[in-house]
């Protein structure tokens, strides 16, 4: 295309993708914690 429509949109996509990956790299993963069991199961 004469107006570089596809190239422009691909560049915008690459910029959004890079920003997402930078943000994702610094995200923390929350691990569900199991409740602590008592040492003595009879309690």
Please give the structural blueprint.
Elements: H1 5-25
Characterise this structure:
This protein has 43 residues and is mostly helical. 49% of the residues lie in helices and 0% in strands. It is built from one helix and no strands. It has one helix spanning 5-25. It is rod-shaped. It starts with a helix and ends in an 18-residue tail after the last helix. The mean pLDDT is 84.
Give the overall silhouette: rod-shaped
In angstroms, what is the radius of gyration? 24 Å
Query: Unreliable segments (pLDDT under 50, ≥5 consecutive)?
Result: none
Number of strands: 0
Number of helices: 1
- Mean pLDDT score, rounded? 84
Main sheet: strands, sense, barrel: none
Briefly note the structural class of the backbone. mainly alpha
Estimate what percentage of residues fall within beta strands: under 5%
Could you estimate the helical fraction of the residues in percent?
40-55%
Alpha carbon gap, first and last residue: 75 Å
Which H/E pattern describes the elements?
H
Keywords:
rod-shaped, mainly alpha, 43 residues
């Amino acid at each position: 295309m004469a107006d570089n429509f596809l190239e422009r949109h691909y560049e915008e996509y690459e910029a959004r993708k890079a920003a997402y990956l930078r943000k994702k790299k610094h995200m923390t993963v929350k691990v569900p914690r199991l409740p602590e069991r008592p040492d003595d199961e009879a309690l």
